[in-house]
Amino acid sequence: MTNQQNNELMVVANEIDKFYPNGCHALKAVSATIHRGEVVVIIGPSGSGKSTFLRTLNQLEEISTGSIMVDGIDMYSKSTNINQLRQNVGMVFQSFNLFPHKTALENVMLAPLKVAKRPHKEVSEHAKALMKRVGLEDRMNNYPTHLSGGQQQRVAIARALAMKPDLMLFDEPTSALDPEMVGEVLDVMKGLAKEGMTMAIVTHEMGFAKEVADRVLFMEEGALLVDDTPQAVFDNPTHPRLKQFLAKIL
């Protein structure tokens, strides 16, 4: 357990269903909570609904039925400004999506300047501090094509942090990386966990999940089957499907 959680709920997802137009039932009555300062890791086989569920938490995927509250705000209320809410929810994807014509530092500064309209000096100082935080203070003026995959993903994390979010979502952030670059990205995420950042992470890195998670969610075919501590999930799994899954990958 990495964090001293308080009892304040950051995310409350209640009975989430997601149907696609082709009839695919991608999420089946998924209910889960994330407390402020908690690290929740979501695992499961490919196609189990992990990423779909994660993406509903900032409405990149719309739900069909159910409700999602983020920091006390009903995400699907007509009165909710979803763009404003998204400013408070950082997202890091498998692909880095950096602007190739901008330097690493400029990529980090872009959203606070354009979206949040913060003063240039303040944004610049914060962006430089973030680049140092992710171990790239010597790469600030490099363009993405001159950075390794691991470095680009660390810039992407700094870019998400630049908006000063209260919640960070990571969708398989290391799956597109060469194996030797995975560690440098996971180390940055471990640092965020120690600092008390609220995080929901979809990953196939089981060692990382065991080390960093406060809770682990196991999904299969759109349903949430297990919600428990990493010790219970990895050291003493009781659900037969979870046992089967872990036996194949560990």
UniProtKB/TrEMBL annotation:
Gene3D superfamilies according to UniProt: P-loop containing nucleotide triphosphate hydrolases
Keyword terms: Amino-acid transport, ATP-binding, Nucleotide-binding, Transport
Chief subcellular location: membrane
One term of GO molecular function: ABC-type amino acid transporter activity
Location of the protein in the cell: Cell inner membrane
Membrane disposition: Peripheral membrane protein
Source taxon at top rank: Bacteria
Family of the protein in this entry: Belongs to the ABC transporter superfamily.
Name recorded for this polypeptide: Amino acid ABC transporter ATP-binding protein (PAAT family)
